[in-house]
Specification:
371 residues, mainly alpha, 21 helices, globular
Length: 371
C-alpha cells in the first residue's frame, strides 16, 4: 500500500520539482520578475556620448595641428639655414596646407568606410615619416617639399577626428562635441610658442625629433581610449557622394571656409616669416606674436557663433567679409608692428566662428545627418 501511494503521489510531485528547476518562461522584453528588460535594448540604444573618445579626438586634432603648421613655425630657421628666396619660403609653408586640404576628402571617405579609429591611428603612424626625414635629412628644397607634403596628413585630421567624436552624441549635442574636438586647433599656439625656442637651442632639425614625443603620446592615448560609435548606418555608396556634390551650399561653404579658416591657417603659417622679413624681429618674438594671434583666434571662435545665432549667419558673414577685405588692404600697406598684429588678430576669430556655425546650421537642415 505504501508503495502504491508513492507511485500515485510521484506524478503529482514531479511537475512541481520540474517547475522549480526550470526558469519561468520570459515574455518578450520582460525579466522573470515581470520588469521591462533593458539590457538588450541598451546595446542598440542611441549613444549619449563617450568622453574618452572625445578626449582622444581632441588630442589627435591638437597634435596633428601642431605638426601641420610646424614648418611655418620653424620657417625663419629653415629659410636662413638653406638661404631660401621669397618664393621658396612661401612654397615650403604652403605645401603642408595644400596637401592637408586635398587629403581631407579621401581620408574622410576612408573613415566612413573603415571607421575613424583605424584611419586615425594609421594617420598618426604615418606622421613619423616626415618627422624622421626632417630630423635626419631636410638639407635641400626637395626634402622640404617631401616633408611638407607628408605633413599634410596631419591637416586631414579634421575629417577623421571630428566625425569620430560627434557620432557618439545625439544630434542636438553634436555641435558641442565637434566644437570641443575642434578646439585642438590651439596646437597652432603651442607650436609657435615652443618650436622657435627649441630651434634656437637644438636646431630646427632637432625640433623634428622632439616632435615625435607628443606624437607618440597622442598615438597611445588614441589607441587606448578612442572607440567607433555603435551608431553606424549603411555605408553610403558612390551615388550618395555624387549627390552631395550637387548641393550648391556645399560649394558655397568651401569657398567661404577657404577665405575664413583658410586665411587663419595660411596667415598663421606664414606670419613668422613675414614678421622676420618685414619687421626684423627675432625668430622667438615672431613665434610669440604668431601664437598671440592664433590664441585669440582659437579662444574667441565661439563668439562668432553666438553672434551669428542671434543676428543671423548670412548677413553677419557678408558684413565681416567686407571687414576682411579692409583688413587685408591695411596689412598690405605694412603699418607699424603693433597695428598689423592687432589687425590680423581681430580679423580672424569671429569670422571663422560665424562660418563654422552658419555652415553647420544650414547643412544640418539641408543635408543628411551623419550616421
Amino acid at each position: 500500500m505504501a508503495f502504491q501511494k508513492t507511485l500515485t503521489a510521484e506524478p503529482q510531485s514531479r511537475p512541481r520539482a520540474d517547475a522549480a528547476a526550470r526558469p519561468a518562461p520570459r515574455t518578450a522584453g520582460r525579466t522573470p520578475q515581470g520588469r521591462p528588460a533593458v539590457a538588450r535594448e541598451s546595446a542598440t540604444a542611441e549613444p549619449q556620448g563617450h568622453t574618452p573618445t572625445l578626449a582622444a579626438c581632441f588630442l589627435h586634432f591638437d597634435v596633428s595641428f601642431m605638426l601641420w603648421v610646424l614648418l611655418g613655425a620653424l620657417g625663419v630657421y629653415i629659410a636662413e639655414g638653406l638661404a631660401l628666396g621669397p618664393s621658396e619660403k612661401a612654397m615650403v609653408v604652403a605645401i603642408p596646407i595644400l596637401s592637408g586640404s586635398l587629403l581631407r576628402v579621401p581620408l574622410g571617405l576612408l573613415s566612413d568606410r573603415f571607421g575613424g579609429k583605424k584611419v586615425g591611428t594609421i594617420m598618426l603612424i604615418c606622421l613619423y615619416g616626415p618627422l624622421t626625414l626632417g630630423w635626419l635629412s631636410g638639407d635641400s628644397l626637395n626634402d622640404l617639399m617631401a616633408i611638407g607634403a607628408l605633413l599634410g596628413v596631419a591637416g586631414a585630421s579634421f575629417a577623421v577626428a571630428l566625425p569620430l567624436a560627434s557620432r557618439w552624441y545625439p544630434p542636438e549635442k553634436q555641435g558641442l562635441a565637434m566644437g570641443i574636438a575642434a578646439a585642438g586647433n590651439s596646437g597652432t599656439v603651442v607650436t609657435n610658442l615652443i618650436a622657435p625656442r627649441l630651434a634656437a637651442s637644438i636646431g630646427w632639425q632637432g625640433v623634428m625629433a622632439v616632435a615625435m614625443i607628443p606624437l607618440t603620446i597622442a598615438l597611445i592615448v588614441f589607441v587606448l581610449l578612442a572607440k567607433d560609435s555603435p551608431r553606424r548606418g549603411p555605408r553610403p555608396g558612390m551615388a550618395q557622394y555624387l549627390r552631395a556634390l550637387r548641393e550648391r551650399d556645399l560649394w558655397s561653404f568651401c569657398l567661404l571656409y577657404s577665405v575664413t579658416f583658410g586665411g587663419y591657417v595660411g596667415l598663421g603659417s606664414f606670419l613668422p616669416l613675414m614678421l622676420r622679413d618685414q619687421y626684423q624681429v627675432t625668430p622667438v618674438t615672431a613665434g610669440l606674436l604668431t601664437a598671440l594671434v592664433a590664441g585669440i583666434g582659437s579662444l574667441s571662435r565661439p563668439a562668432g557663433g553666438i553672434i551669428a545665432d542671434r543676428v543671423g549667419g548670412a548677413p553677419l558673414l557678408s558684413m565681416l567679409l567686407g571687414v576682411i577685405a579692409v583688413a587685408y588692404a591695411a596689412c598690405a600697406t605694412l603699418p607699424t608692428l603693433p597695428v598689423i598684429v592687432t589687425v590680423i588678430a581681430v580679423r580672424s576669430p569671429a569670422v571663422t566662428g560665424v562660418t563654422w556655425y552658419w555652415s553647420r546650421s544650414i547643412s544640418g537642415r539641408k543635408l543628411p545627418r551623419p550616421t
